[in-house]
Design a protein that fits this description.
2 domains, three-stranded antiparallel beta sheet, four-stranded antiparallel beta sheet, 7 strands, elongated
Length: 237
């Protein structure tokens, strides 16, 4: 008597098989562009261009020293934009201390002995060089970030980081993104379980095109799976 072999499909693959495939528009063939913005960070060697296309999608073109990445985000699976600011207080304090030290050396040089005057110029030059490097590091590490996270998976799908003023330059555009995120939310699947299956598929697509790495994808998948089982049971009930 032969026993038929039973193949078990992992939960994540089962969800992906159940989800409906919806074609994401090509960012070069958008039917309608609702808003766009571009900004450059010369200090970081980055250029980013964002476009809201076809109501429910955000086209992203990002160039940096590490390469170029172009992709389209489905706004049905994205939370409203969030902003953050990091101030490099330690480097700013160090820059101010070096400035004070350089001024003190110059003041002492006018009334100091001859031997001190001979060494004060190279010492002041050294301090000023350290000040310039410290100030550059303070400017580089003081950042403003506009970020988009997936709605359930909480994966970082967009991260625009620049110096002070980045949030101000992107504020008007991100307000439009938030409006289109609300518009796209109305086009989600009618049940939570179906929406979670679609979001799982979207995370798989973003992993394939290089937006999400493997740890980010696995973390998002775990969050979605933890929400999917109760939602699926509720929809059946």
């Amino acid at each position: 008597m032969r026993t038929a072999a039973v193949t078990r499909i992992p939960a994540a693959e089962h969800i992906l098989l159940e989800s409906d495939v919806q074609q994401v528009p090509d960012l070069r063939a958008a039917r309608k562009v609702h808003a766009s913005v571009a900004f450059r960070s010369r200090l970081r060697g980055q250029f980013t261009q964002l476009e809201i296309i076809d109501y429910y999608y955000l086209a992203v073109r990002a160039r940096s020293r590490s390469g170029t990445l172009e992709y389209v985000l489905d706004l049905r699976f994205v939370e409203t934009p969030c902003v953050s600011r990091h101030i490099a207080w330690r480097w700013i304090t160090a820059s101010l201390l070096l400035t004070t030290l350089a001024c003190g050396i110059l003041q002492l040089a006018s009334s100091a002995p001859q031997w001190w005057q001979r060494y004060s110029v190279p010492l002041c030059a050294t301090v000023m060089g350290a000040w310039a490097m410290t100030t550059l590091l303070a400017a580089y590490r003081t950042t403003e970030t506009v970020r988009l996270l997936s709605s359930v998976g909480a994966a970082r799908v967009l991260d625009c980081t620049g110096g002070l003023g980045t949030v101000r330059r992107l504020r008007h555009f991100m307000a439009k993104v938030a409006a289109h995120v609300r518009l796209a939310a109305a086009a989600r699947r009618t049940t939570k379980a179906a929406h979670l299956r679609d979001e799982m598929r979207e995370h798989g697509r973003l992993r394939q095109i290089g937006v999400l790495d493997e740890p980010q994808y696995e973390s998002a998948k775990a969050r979605i799976l933890s929400k999917h089982s109760p939602a699926a049971a509720a929809s059946i009930g």
